[in-house]
Amino acid sequence: MSDKKRETFGSKLGLIMATAGSALGLGNIYRFPCEAGANGGAAFLIVYLVIALLIGTPLMVAEFVIGRRSKSNPVGAFRCLASAKSAWPLLGYLGVLCAFLILAFYTTVAGWTLGYLGKAAAGHFSGQDLPAIQRQFADFTNHPWLPVVCQLAFLALTAVVVMRGVKDGIERWSKILMPLLLVIMVVLCVKSLTLSGAGEGLAFFFKPDFSKITGRVLISALGQSFFSLSIGMGALITYGSYISRKDNMVSSAVGVTLADTLVAVLAGVIIFPAAFSFGIQPEAGASLAFTTLPMVFQQMTGGYFFCLMFFLLLVIATLTSTISLLEVIVATLTEELHLSRAKSALVGAAGTAVIGVLATLSFRTGSPLHLGSSTVFDLLDHATALYMMPIGGLLIVLFLGWKMNGLRKAIYLIIRYLAPVAIAVIFVSQLLMR
Ligand code: TRP
What we know:
Largest sheet: 2 strands, antiparallel
Oligomer: single chain
Strand order of the largest sheet: 1-2
CATH class: Mainly Alpha
Helix content: over 70%
Bound molecules: tryptophan
């Protein structure tokens, strides 16, 4: 496809903001505390930080470079950069499949944020005690159709923005609203840290017990960093393909990694002290963020307003993430199958909806949508974060490090040697240490 037909981001800031928009989302505020809570708190945090900076940033650069050089979707990118008959384009297809599967379970929780925005507006949390707020979460996720309607509404919203294209849709949204989310999170932090018993939660999150670092912790941290930074499946190849030639991608990648990590850590500093203060288990899983946060809000002066603003911004942060996932599918369908943007967005959203509804319904107690002890939701989450993204990321760094020429900077040494070895070791170690 000729360069003229493709859109590009308006500026370097546009790329940074769109990538940050993709990175910041439920991965930081919902999934990170879940994973940290289940994997030993501070021990997980340390492993996470090391992996995000040492593997995450270089992999992000790798995706940008592949996208910028090929100016193409993940499938087209590997076809264009590798020899035509090689198997590399399959890696692109793996990415597109991964985007589908992530979007399917991601929109489950995205739907909850929409539902919780409604609850916040209706003032459902004010004056409620912990059991009542826990019951609200159980009632909401167990409701026969409400979470499904919220999920479908979220998908529709995503499709509408994606249809309008890169510049108008993605770039504009991200630029204005992400900084605002940060402000609210800082306010929340202050409140959480002043709750009685906050110290215990801080210790859980910041005082590492290194004996807790197991193979499971390593792979969880790897999967979480890939998930949170939107890497390992081609989303950033797609965004990289919208970069104009001259921009410096290393500084953009470092900036986005730092911002994403900051928001995840802030989420931890909000959620763990509050959880310990209210007597919520850090291993509470799916309900952790959705019970802790409303509890904090309803103890704050102006809690109604802050709660409403928070869920509104969370919906938007989540939307800029679902946009990037759907964009992978849409870029591939428009360029590979020559469908129109609108048709591609509809096909992508409808395909996602089919699996996504199963993930949402699998949360209901007694739902038959289980395999062994895992729900469809967990299966999709684990298949993508613990398997597909690490494998995808490994192959992406191998491709850039060993198949492409003309890479000189120090960061390519990491991409060539350190990142592949580290990913492979973590991936294999957790397979062996079960
Ligand atoms: N990174 C996003 C988050 O943390 C989720 C996300 C968006 C994503 N696009 C992705 C995850 C691509 C993996 C791949 O909420």
